[in-house]
């Protein structure tokens, strides 16, 4: 696992966007796995800016998002606001779990099938939860899990309550499984702030444990972690 330390959120966002944009420019076709949340917002801002300034097309890009709340389109709206409305990606090449599907179980297997048909994920961007979750794979999730419906923990609900000031916060989500994430050819994990320091420490100093989902990445051959000083604080 490679660690790149940056001084602050701004630098992290720029470097993450540089990594993605270089791939977008050079690949003939690319399947990007994307995350939502606070952490990648700056990365999407830079990516949108680069794409505009360089008149870079995204016609050859397919995206696959990690997760969505059940009964909600929160992350669909997030992706639209932060990235999709700023680039020319064909709409049918955007994939986000449908949290409003009549059958959630069926939606999960359709999502897995879709990723397979795309030929897998070339580069998956991840954030990390304070409890070490990746996607919405909460502590205790099997490392073999495929896309599934999860019951969110109190810690995750609390961390994300800010997105639901005007509406009731769903307590369930659909998430790509850890097994699905691990099949990505390359992974870029972003961590900002001291609240993530313990999870980042477990990633580099801990050992494989389903109690800390992110430790599943320890054995992946191509993971880069971009962390600011706060997030890597417990590694020194
Ligand atoms: C979001 C996701 C989550 C977040 C994590 C960190 O799609 O999969 O795992 O990456 O909860 O969230 P922030 O960035 O808001 O601290």
UniProtKB/TrEMBL annotation:
SUPFAM superfamilies: NagB/RpiA/CoA transferase-like. It is an enzyme of class 3 (hydrolase). Keywords: Carbohydrate metabolism, Hydrolase. This is Glucosamine-6-phosphate deaminase. Coiled coil: none annotated. GO terms for molecular function: glucosamine-6-phosphate deaminase activity; identical protein binding. One of its GO terms (cellular component) is cytoplasm. Transmembrane segments: none annotated.
